[in-house]
Amino acid sequence: MDIEALLAFITIVNEGSFSKAAKVMHITQPAISKRIQNLESRLDVKLFERLQREITLTDAGKALLPHALNILHNFDNAKQAVRDTSGEVKGDLRIVASHHIGLHRLPLILREFSKRHPLVDLHLNFLDSESAYALLQENNADIAFITIPEQRREHFITHLVWDDPMAFVCGHQHPLAKLKRVGPKELSQHDAILPSESTLTYRIVAKVFEENQLELKAKIPTNYLETMKMMASVGMGWSVLPQTMIDEDLHALPVRNPVIERKLGAVSYEKKHLGSAASAFMEIALGIWEEA
Length: 292
Prior knowledge:
Blueprint: H1 3-15, H2 18-25, H3 29-43, E1 48-51, E2 54-57, H4 59-84, E3 91-97, H5 99-104, H6 107-116, E4 120-126, H7 129-137, E5 143-148, E6 156-163, E7 166-170, H8 184-188, E8 192-193, H9 200-211, H10 225-233, E9 238-242, E10 251-252, E11 263-269, H11 276-291
Parallel strand pairs: 3-4, 3-5, 8-9
Antiparallel strand pairs: 1-2, 5-11, 6-11, 7-9, 7-10
């Protein structure tokens, strides 16, 4: 089956339009349309429904999607295996990381990796942890450094895990900073600055408030921990942040319940084989984290 046609099919699904997919693939829209027409002709099916400006997958398109992804993963694995026979660490390496990990955990690893392996073309993409899984599965990333959920995702491999203890914080002038003991009842009386509802941190906090029949006033969601830190430091509300981010601008609250714990780590998709570049990156990451 034509690899380029399958790649066009997957790109259209990801981008949601023929024109956007053509730009991503650096080809013309007629060219990408021709690839899909050839694929539809070969399979004797219609893959997309075109409704005004929107496109959706037909039942045949939905059936093809997982198989197309598998074929592209296998083809990419084959190319990587051939490259690795040279013994050199080179080629593309696509890393995905949450903003916090990218800013606070990866710099030393990136610097050491670039120094040891200058022939690798390294691509770094920042996004939230939940979105990373789709990029890995769609073969748009090799490794993701993200928050590890309590229940590990099926079909994904966790390579490294380390603890990232969290703490409840607020600004020094916030009313909560004057209390010797703080619990859910005291927190419920003030605005919270938390990440979106899809995050593990939010779900842990929300569950405690729900169990205690208390209102969680999280009116300003943001997944940028640096933004959460700034807003808490100027007194806009309390927040939950990694202990490594607490400095003279923040007051750590004496909260015993709930205890917020999370783990960070490196994840890959089980059908994507780690090539020499990805393996070298993981080796350096492991060494640096063990020293830390």
